[in-house]
Amino acid sequence: MSSVVDARRGRLLIIGGAAGPGLLGRFVELAGGAAARIVVVATASSAPTAAETEHLAAFESLGAGRVEALRIANRSDACDPRVEPVLRSASGVFFTGGDQERITRVIGGTVTDSLLQELVAAGAVVLAGTSAGAAMMSGTMIVEGDAPGVSRACVRTGPGLEFLPGVLIDQHFGQRGRLNRLLSAVALAPHQLGLGIDEDTAILTDGDDFEVLGSGAVTVVDAGGAEIIRVPDRGPITLTGCRLHVLPAGHAFHLTGRRPRVIENEAS
Amino acid sequence: MSSVVDARRGRLLIIGGAAGPGLLGRFVELAGGAAARIVVVATASSAPTAAETEHLAAFESLGAGRVEALRIANRSDACDPRVEPVLRSASGVFFTGGDQERITRVIGGTVTDSLLQELVAAGAVVLAGTSAGAAMMSGTMIVEGDAPGVSRACVRTGPGLEFLPGVLIDQHFGQRGRLNRLLSAVALAPHQLGLGIDEDTAILTDGDDFEVLGSGAVTVVDAGGAEIIRVPDRGPITLTGCRLHVLPAGHAFHLTGRRPRVIENEAS
Question: What is the interface pTM, i.e. ipTM, of the complex?
Answer without folding.
Answer: 0.86
